[in-house]
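As agreed, record passed on underneath.
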Amino acid sequence: MRVVHLMICIVFLVSCSKEACRESVEPENIVLEVDRLEEVLFKSQSKNEVEEFLGRYPDFAQFFLHSDQYPADSILAERMFSLIQNPSIDTLYRQSSEAFRNFDDVVRTLESGLGRLKVYYPNTPSPKVQTAVTGMYNDLFISNEHIMIGMDFFIGPDAKYKPREIPQYILQRYTTDHLAASILQFVSSQFITTGGGSDMLSEMIDYGKSYYLLSMILPCTPERILIGYTEEEWSDVFENDRIIWANFVENEWLYETDHTVKQKFLGERPNVYEIGDKCPGRIGRWLGWQIVKSYAEKTGASVTEIMSERDLNKLFTQSGYKPSGS
C-alpha cells in the first residue's frame, strides 16, 4: 500500500477557473465515496460514542489518528471527546465547515482528475475520501485506498488558529484551492518513471514530469496553483526566465550532484537568493517543468511516453529548451 503523510504538501484546486482550459482527454467516469467524519464525530455526546465512532471507522483511527500508538481505543476516545468539547476546537470546526462549504467542487475536481489519469493508466485507484477536524493533529493521509483530509489545516488565511510548525510561505498553499492538486500529484506520482540520476538536471526533469502529468489531468486548474506559486511569483518567473536559465548554465548547476546545493534550487525555501531576492523557492522544479513541456511540444510524445522515458539527457537534448524571447 502506497502511503504518505503530508505535513508539507508538495503543492497539491477546486473547480475550473475563468482561464481557458488546456487541451486534454475526456475523463472516464469516476464517483468517489465521501465520508464527512467531522459531522459524525462532533455529534458524539459521550466518550463511549466516540469509541463507537473509532470502531466504525478503523482505518481512519489507525492511519489518521494513529490509534495503534495507544494502549486501548478507550484512551484515544477519551482524548478525542475532550477535544471536541474544547471551545477553541468549536471555532476550528465552524471555520472548517465554512471553508469547505463548496467541498463538492473539490470532489468533482478529484473525480475528473482521476478520470483523466485512468485514461492514461487504467489501474488508477478510486480512493475513499474522508474529512475530519482533529485540532491540527494531521493534515493529509493519502494511499491508493484512502484520502483523509484534516479540514482545519486548509481554512486559509482567515483562520483564527493556524498550524505553528508550518512556515508562512508554505502555509499559503494550505487552502481548498490547492487541495485537489496536492492530492492528485501524489496519486499520479506512482505512474512516473524517474531517471535515477543524481545530478540537478535529472531531478529537475523528474519534478517536471510530475507537474506536466498534473497539468494534463487538471487542465482547468491554473498552472500556478499546480506548483503552488502566487500570481506575482508566477508572473515574475516568466518575466525573468532568461536570467534564471543563464544562472543555471553559467554557474554549471545543471550537473551539480551535491545534495546541499541541489536543495537550494529544488527544496522548500521562501526565495532562491542565489538567483535573486524575488526568485521563488523550488525554481529548479519549475524549470524542469518547462523543459518537459518543451520536449512534449517539440517531439509530440504522448503523456505515457514522457512519463516512462528513462533517458533524461535525451529528453533534455530533444526538448531544445530556450527561455521565452531567446
Observations:
- The two ends are 46 Å apart (CA to CA).
- The chain is about 50% helix and 5% strand.
- The longest strand covers residues 128-132.
